[in-house]
Design a protein that fits this description.
This protein has 446 residues and is mostly helical. It contains 18 helices and 4 strands. It has a 4-stranded antiparallel sheet with strand order 1-2-3-4, with helices on one face.
Amino acid sequence: MYVLDGMNGKGDFYLQCESNGIILHRRFMAPSLENARIIMNKILEKIKGHPQVAEGTAYAILFTMGVCHLLNDMIQSVIPAIYPLLKERYSFSFAQIGVITLVFQLTSSVLQPFVGQYADRRPQPYSLSAGMCFTLIGLLALAFAPNFGLILLSVALIGCGSSVFHPEASRVAQLASGGKKSLAQSIFQVGGNGGSAFGPLLAALIVIPYGQHAVGWFALAAMLASLLLFRVGGWYSLVLAGQRAGRRVRQAVATTALPAHTVRVAMWILVLMIFSKYFFNACMTSYFTFYLMEKFGITVQQSQYCLFAYLAAFAAGTLMGGFMGDRYGRKYVIIFSILGAAPFTLAMPYLNLPWTIVTAVMSGLIIASAFSAIVVYATDLMPDKVGMVAGIFFGLMFGLGGIGSAFFGWLADFTSIEFIFEVSTWLPLLGVIALFLPDVRPVKIQ
């Protein structure tokens, strides 16, 4: 739909073209309506032939970003999986392993908000591909690093690649959403969940049997991701070209006529949601297998199958949350995904093995639906800072997951595995504060 209006009697005209959630505006001078139509056609020609720029949901871009997220997070999850190999080969202490984790977490999480803030101000279409090159270099360096210092440098480079990837990739996902922002974020996020699940498995099959040099094979995944992201960069540059043509292109986002104080309170509530979600998830992913082996006496292999069932449900829940968020509203999905899991998590420590698996799967399925809704809700609160907000929440996801794993490990040493599960199952109840989130109604920015 295109609208051309005369602003006043002095030759000012206003062009608005709208299609499936994308609005392009331009004010310009023209001596007559006929000349204004000529100028309008020149503007529209800049995006004509590129329907993904202005029409519909660009599923090809979304699925490409999901695949790249899978490759990126698969590489990230390989790092902790090879700690036993590094410790044995170089006789590292647990303190040195902790320093490696610290450097990796700092570069892969703390930097993300700053990268996102820069991307909001100066988006770079090909920065995603360039960032993956940092990961590529880091992997090759890690494969041949002969000492502790170079290992730290290697994991820092890999972490930097992740920091560049996540905030800008979230911006691309929203641009490609065609208005279905929760679905787009879920498609993107489910790729990361899959990568996190496959990474340790591939490390066990490739790196552990063949040694440190085998890490270099994962550089092929980084190279593939870089090539795919280069093609995405071409699409992204078309979007930016549309922005330059129209002076101001914005998605139909949820603006808030809310006071700044209300926005800040809502953001802190969302941070607490991430805390409850990822502390619980850290306990499950790190210690669920130990819990099952200790309480029910099953084998390591059987416990891994149970963990895989939880992770698969977690991935499915992420995608489910995207559909629900666009259809029913993101606030309600956040409330459901946190509080809806509470009955299952609270019952888990008191059930037999089959029902423990059932409640674990249901907990993962429900609680995972929150993340895409939380990120999109936060960007609706701050629509002009999509990259920074995505960087904050992805950074929190990584950081709180690492802190939660360390905390529950420390607590288990002083108490027991069963005790930490009894504690962690109460965390979803923190979701009750989501009831205080303000309603954000989407309106079109004019």
